[in-house]
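Worked Example 4.2. Consider the chain below.
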Amino acid sequence: MRDLFTEIRGAALATLILAAVCCGAYPLLVFGVAQIAFPAEANGSLIVAPDGSVLGSALMAQGFTGDGYFHPRPSAAGANGYDAASSGGSNLGPTSKKLADAIAARVVAYRAENGLVPDAAVPADAVTASGSGLDPHISPRNAALQVPRVAAARGIAEDRVRALVDKHTEPPTLGVLGDAGVNMLTLNLALDAEARGNP
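Applying the procedure from the previous section yields the following structure tokens:
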């Protein structure tokens, strides 16, 4: 019986020590290092306005729809899309008729809103949602096709809009992982800042 209590005491002590290290000390250490080395990223890559209000996160898309804004990828996150509390895709497979019909409708709408000819090639990211439904990036080709619409709606030169697109285009991670992408949220905020005379 004494051996049993010794085993139980040893197991309980080991559990308490591991809980203190793994659930207390280690998370606090990681949190502290992140706050010192990567404070912006550790706090959600938030974009803060001059008045201190949070405009969003550079890591999450928002549903811009106006002609004067670059439009994000479609989103299946939540009932109306772009819901950070309901991150996820539609889970429709490549043989799904519902997915095929949705993409076909999006292609027609994309061509119409951007003044493209009926048989113009449309970038895949313009008509398909990302796995999370919250990807803030669009492809450079997608952004380039939206430039004329945005420039016309804002009454500014297309070259100026293209320059902003270039400025907000992020290269592949480490130069080789993934593709270049345009951060649609920071780009739209830059357009608004320029319109206010704060480029």
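The chain has a mean pLDDT of 88. The radius of gyration is 23 Å. Compare this with Example 4.1 before moving on.
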